[in-house]
Automatic annotation (TrEMBL):
It comes from Lacticaseibacillus pantheris DSM 15945 = JCM 12539 = NBRC 106106. The lineage of its organism: Bacteria, Bacillati, Bacillota, Bacilli, Lactobacillales. Residues 367-380 have a biased composition (Low complexity). This is Transcription termination/antitermination protein NusA. One of its GO terms (molecular function) is RNA binding. Its main location: cytoplasm.
Length: 400
């Protein structure tokens, strides 16, 4: 049995990756439990397993005392000195008490305990391995799917992809090889649970790192990603080297680099924008491809909000289809964005003059009239002009 046990432990370490020391520790614990249960012995027993020979031995550990009250736990100083004159009171001595039929009983009793320890060790190995890939991209194979999840094999573990992390335009079929973003790794009771995603903004960042060497080595940095998975994303980049154009480098020659990311994400559009220290410039870049005339900030508002002025003919482009362009720009910059056409801002400026401003302009106009005998200029807009329809759009950053 001993030879077979050693071979089994070696095979377990080779095939399952479970270290022999872990299994031996579990085996010794199981054998100790088996001995106590089957032989009704005291708790002061130790079981050792020889990893080279495969021999199993049971020892009763007794304390050296001047007077023995329990022979199962104690040994007299006289008897101890008969074994070795160096023993003193308080020392512990091991006495071998291995039963002849212990091998059979131990094997039966310890089997379940050993298998449990082996499963735990395997789970720990898998968790340690895959927790290193959290927030990274892995290549997987679609195994199956149901109403809630798509199950993706990543090798030693089957990851799950919830519906919220699945691309609406993609149809996942068995045996399809796909790239997934490892969003979370949990060490659950039943074993490691890996959650993967195709919609996480982090996936866009990792894909660009794979396609753009300058991003991978840190020459170009991705500052932020705002994404509506499967439809459109905005990626803000900046360069740590003044001689490197961050946007051009990310886009690549003839758009080859960004196109590779677009192809991987089933045609999802990518807007690459230049990150700026100045918030107004950053917001203007984020609203690309729309032209921005000016960005005004509301200093009295505690929230980060800005009013963006665009040419009338650019209003629809700035807002985007169903407000998407403005919404993504808000997510990317972290500002609540209110987009207004140039014509409306002109009317608002005139109408929102304070009483003091009106009085001052009226006084100036009156003085001019006295000096020149001309009619004072009217400081209010015509009534007909105020009937123009308003066209504004609000975009508030969210945590989506």
């Amino acid at each position: 049995m001993s030879k077979e046990m050693i071979e089994a432990l070696d095979a377990l370490e080779t095939e399952k990756g479970v270290k022999k020391e872990i299994v031996i520790d579990a085996l010794e614990t199981a054998l100790q439990t088996a001995y106590k249960r089957n032989y009704n012995q005291a708790q002061n027993v130790e079981v050792t397993f020889d990893a080279k020979k495969g021999d199993i031995k049971v020892y009763a550990v007794k304390e050296v005392t001047g007077e023995v009250f329990d022979s199962r736990l104690e040994v007299s100083l006289k008897d101890a000195m008969a074994i070795n004159k160096a023993y003193e009171i308080g020392d512990h001595i091991k006495f071998e008490v291995t039963p002849k039929d212990f091998g059979r009983i131990a094997a039966q009793t310890a089997k379940q305990v050993i298998m449990q320890r082996v499963r735990e060790a395997e789970r720990a190995n898998v968790y340690d391995e895959y927790s290193q890939y959290e927030n990274e991209i892995m290549q997987g194979t679609v195994e199956r799917k149901d109403n809630k999840f798509v199950y993706v094999s990543l090798g030693k573990v089957e990851a799950v992809m919830p519906r919220s992390d699945q691309m609406q335009r993609e149809d996942y079929k068995m045996h399809d090889r796909i790239k997934v973003y490892v969003s979370k790794v949990e060490n659950a009771t039943k074993g490691p649970q890996v959650f993967v995603s195709r919609t996480n903004p982090g996936m866009v960042k990792r894909l660009f790192e794979q396609e753009v060497p300058e991003i991978y080595d840190g020459t170009v940095e991705i500052v932020g990603v705002a994404r509506e998975a499967g439809d459109r994303s905005k990626v803000a980049v900046r360069s740590t080297n003044e001689n490197v154009d961050a946007v051009g480098t990310t886009v690549g020659p003839r758009g080859a680099r960004v196109q590779a990311v677009v192809n991987e994400l089933a045609g999802e559009n990518m807007d690459i924008v230049q990150w700026e220290d100045d918030a107004s410039d950053y917001i203007a870049n984020a609203l690309n491809p729309a032209e921005v005339i000016a960005v005004q900030f509301n200093d009295e508002d505690n929230e980060r909000s800005a009013t963006v002025i665009v040419p009338d003919y650019q209003l629809s482009l700035a807002i985007g289809k169903k407000g998407q362009n403005a919404r993504l720009a808000a997510k990317l910059t972290g500002f609540k964005i209110d987009i207004k056409p140039e014509s409306e801002v002109e009317f608002v400026d005139d109408d929102e003059l304070t009483a003091e401003d009106v009085a001052e302009e009226t006084d100036v106009a009156a003085d001019d009239a006295v000096a020149t005998d001309d009619v004072a200029a009217d400081v209010t807009p015509d009534v007909d002009d105020t009937d123009d329809a308003e066209a504004t759009a609000d975009a508030t950053p969210t945590d989506d």
